[in-house]
Amino acid sequence: MSETINPESLMEPGPRWWEWLFTPFHYVAGGTALVIGVVAVLVAGWVGWLSGSVFDGVLGMHFQHLSLRTSLLACGVDWLSLALVLLVVGKLMSRTSFRALDLFGTQAFARWPLLLAAVAALLPRFEQTTNAILPMLRGAEVQLTAGDLVGLAVVMLVTIVAFVWTVALMYQSYRVCCNVRGVAAVVSFVAGLLIAQVVSAVALQAMGVPMVPANLRRPAAVSAAPSAGQVTAPASAALTQQADRLVDLLAKGDYHAASQGFDPTMRAALPADKLKAAWEGLVAQSGPFQARVADRTAQEGGFEVVYVTCQFQRQRMAVKVVFDQSRQVSGLWFVPPP
Predict the structure, then answer these.
(1) Within the chain, how many helices (H) and strands (E) appear?
(2) How far is CA 269 from CA 1, 154, 224, 229, in A?
(3) pLDDT tens profile 61-114
(4) What are the residues whose beta carbons fall under 8 Å from the beta carbon of 225, sequence distance 6 or more?
(5) Res 110: pLDDT
């Protein structure tokens, strides 16, 4: 008597869950991969906008609040830059024909792990911790809790894992879609990846997307070297009022009036249009201005300094105003509150 064979037992088993995570492009490509990938790119850009994560290149990421449009634009440029470069490289390296749709779709799909990095940056106090790191490295007294440091470490670890995972998926996409194997696949992919990083960075910079967070620029957001001359008298209430008025004028958008108290060096280095760009950059990073909350005076290097701490929608920042002997503004910085 013959044994009855179940037809389903002859069917090849479907992909296992880890295959979907690490080698999905044997099972999904074309329009399906493109739809899933584009959704993943857009969601990563949206979450990045919420968390202040900017994907500023195929292999780039920094933490800074920008507009939703800019965040989505950066993610789209990153994806298309690598897909276009790998399309050219694949045509040169592959001995068989392949569909551009498959490559573009799977390259978009490959970027989904970056969503994990953007989500991790939503961790409470992560933004305040990153804003405090640079002043701490420069010698400022910054108090960070053990929880802050653990949170920072977690976000950094998740970000590293997300980028390694993404690059691995990008390689799988290129290898499978372009049918390139062995050492040639690895070398050509790495070359294409590096070229695409340069292409995406140049394209984003040309579009005005910041490639370095405002608090890492030198100076932090805007500065001018103090002019010659020192003062020794304690900072007066008049200087505090002058600094407060400067902040109020910036908040109102009256940049011409705000620059009237600048010394000649500052007026040349920071005319009204550049002052406007600097303030708007701070607002893009920190959210709309809400109020002045505190003043602090100090003497630094023989100059009178007033720190005007301001509350913005997403964080507090201080406007550091430096005055020369004639009570003109000779330096201006946007810094974390002292």
Answers:
(1) 12, 6
(2) 97, 41, 7, 18
(3) 877 767 788 889 999 999 999 999 999 999 999 988 999 999 999 999 999 999
(4) 265, 330, 331
(5) 93
DSSP H helical segments within 138-181, as ranges?
146-178
The two tokens of residue 133 are 């790191």
The residues pairing with 320 across neighbouring beta strands, listed in sequence order, are 307, 333
Q: Provide the token pair at 167.
A: 């690059």
Cβ atoms within 10 Å, residue 3: 4
Q: Which CATH code for domain 237-335?
A: 3.10.450.590
What residue ranges of the chain are covered by domains with CATH 3.10.450.590? 237-335
Please enumerate in sequence order all residues whose Cβ is within 8 A of that of 278, keeping only pairs 6 or more positions apart, or say none: 221, 222, 270, 334
Separation of alpha carbons 280 and 202, rounded Å: 23
Note whether 180 and 188 are within 8 A (CB).
Answer: yes
Q: What is the DSSP string of 233-261?
A: SPPPHHHHHHHHHHHHHHHHT-HHHHGGG
CA dihedral for 270, 271, 277, 279, sign (positive or negative): positive
DSSP character at residue 270: S
Interaxial angle between packed helices 182-206 and 146-178, expressed in degrees from 0 to 180 and rounded to the nearest 10: 120
pLDDT digits (tens, 9 = 90+) for 17-72: 777 777 888 788 888 889 999 999 999 999 988 887 888 889 888 777 677 888 89
d(CA 183, CA 28): 25
**Is a pLDDT exceeding 80 seen at residue 219?**
no
**Cβ distance 75 to 173 under 8 Å?**
no
Asked if 327 and 264 touch (Cβ cutoff 8 Å), the reply is: no
Task: Specify the residue for token string 């105003």.
Answer: 321
